[in-house]
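Table 4 source record.
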Amino acid sequence: MSKSTDPDLLSGDMAEAAYEAVFDTETEGGRHEARNALTHVVSLSLTKMADGLIDPKLVLSWLLTTLGAPALFVGLLVPVREAGALLPQIFLAPQLSRLRRRKWAWVAGSFVQGVAALCTAVAGFALGGIAAGVAVVLALAVLAVARSLCSVSYKDILGRTVGKTRRGTVTGLASTVSSVAVIIFAGALMLQIVPREPLVLAALALAGCYWIAAAALFSTLKEEATEPAKSERQALNVFAKLKEDEVLRRFVIVRGLLTSTALAPPFLVLLAAGQGEEAFGALGALVLASALSSFLSSYVWGRLADRSSRKVLILSGLAGAVALAAALLLSAFGIFTSAVPVAATLFALMIAYRGVRQGRSTYLVDMAPEDRRSDYAAVANTVIGVLLLGSGAFGALASVAGPGWSVGGFGLMALAAAWVARGLPEVEKAAD
C-alpha cells in the first residue's frame, strides 16, 4: 500500500516528516520507526495528561476533603497509588514474557485505568463522606494495579519498537506536550472560571477518556511478534538479578535515594507558615508549578538522557538537593510563608524530579538485556515500592521533629544519589 493511501493517520510522509523534525535525524530504525515513535509520543502524552488531572497528592486529596471524607482516606491516597503501581510488577513480569506482543498488556492496563478514573468522577458526583472515601480509594487501587501492568510492560515495548538514542526523546516530548493541558487546568483552578468542584470532577472524567483513547491508539503500534518464553520463571526468581548484576544493584540504590524528589513536596507545604486561608488557591499554584516544570524541562531531560542517562541521574540528584536546601534557607529567613515561595521551590524540585523520571527510565531500558527488560523493570520497581512505603513511615516519624528535618533528610538523600550515580557505567555508547 502506498503512503498516500495508507489509512493509518500516523503513517506516510507526514509521519516521517514529523519524526525527522522531532528527532533531528532521518528515519533509520526500520520500516515502522517513524510511525512507532509518534504512536508512543501521542499515547504517552494522553496518559501523562490523565496523570496530571487525577494527581492523588493534590487533586484527589482536595476532592475528598471537599466531600467531607475522613482524613484516613485522604492519607491512604498516595500509599495506595504508589504501592499499587509498583509492588504487583514482580508477579506480572513472568506472565508478560509469555506474550507474543507485549503491547496488549499496555493497552489493557490503559483501558482499565480509564474506567477507574471515570469511576472516581462518578463517586465524586454522587457520594459524600465515608462512602466517597471508600469508593475513590478503591477506584484508585484498581487504577494503580492497572498502571503497574503498563509500567512493567512499557520499557520492554519501547525497547522493541524505538531505537536507542531516541527513547528518551520520546518520553521527554510526551511529558512536555502533556504538561500544556495540566497548565490550562491549573490556570482554571486559580482563576475560578467555573466552580472548583465541578471543574475537578470534569477533569477526572476527561482523564478517563484520555486513558481509553491512549489504549485505542497504542493498539495500532507495529510490534514484531516474538516467541513466548519457554522456561517457567517464578516471580521471586527474578530477584536473583540483584545479586548477579552489580550495575542493576547500584542503579536500584540510586533510584531509591532519588525517591526523595517525589516524597519531599508535601513537606514543603508543611514547612510553610500561614497557609490555611490560601489552601484552595494554593492548589492551582502548586499544580501550575508542577506542570510548568514538566513543560520546560522534560524534553530537554529526554534529549540529555539519550546522550547520557547516567549524567541525567547525577544532575537531577544535585538539582533536587539544591532545591531542598533553598527551601530550608528561605524558611530560616522567615520568607517561606506564602504560596509564592512554596510554588517557586516546588517548581525547582519538580524540574529535578522530571530529570529523575527521564534518567531512570532511559537508563534501565538501555542497560537491561533485550530479553530481560521486563524482569529488570519489575525488580527495580518492586524494590522502590517497598522503599516508598518505608520512606512514608520515616517521613511521618521525622515530621514529629518538624518538617525542616524531613526536608533536610530528603536533600541529603538526593545528594547521596548524585554521588552513588557517579559509579554507574555509561550505557548509551553501545550500539543497539
